[in-house]
Amino acid sequence: MQTQELVASAQHDNLDVAFGFANTMAAGIGKLAELNAQFTRATLKEALEFATKAAEQPQDWAVLYGTLGAPVTRKVQEYSRECLGIMSSTHTELLRVAREAGEARMHRIQVYLEETTKHAPAGSEAAVAAFRSAINAANTLYQTLGNAGQHAVKVAQTNFEAAISTASTNARRAMA
């Protein structure tokens, strides 16, 4: 493959990656917008029902007000879980796109290196080996960082779930 073809291929692949990121982000934002719309509709519906009951039975307003906390807490927890799920799936998809792009980039670099070493002058084998070693080390580093990032996301998600569970338990105790 010629250098110009490799550059053109790299530019094309970079555009594909950029559009892949944009599509993934747009899909995630769309899901979050839909979740927000659903949450808002449900909240407004419940607020209307509460206001209607309060208007019909003003003497029972304090009792109605006391029963409002648990459903709201449950809805907020459900919203938080769904929101976290959307963000997590979007993040996972972005990592997949990035990983595929990185693998494609490494393949292009290896092809370019192979093409270049075919025409390398005699005695440059040590320099070529050092360059390959550096590329392999960088690739290993990228993979390690990607794995560490995925692990950090899983830990954060677990901690978030634990915090929601604790808040839910505390809210139920406070309501009782």
From TrEMBL:
What positions does the domain Phasin occupy? 7-100
Q: What is this protein called?
A: Phasin family protein
Q: Which organism is it from?
A: Paraburkholderia lycopersici
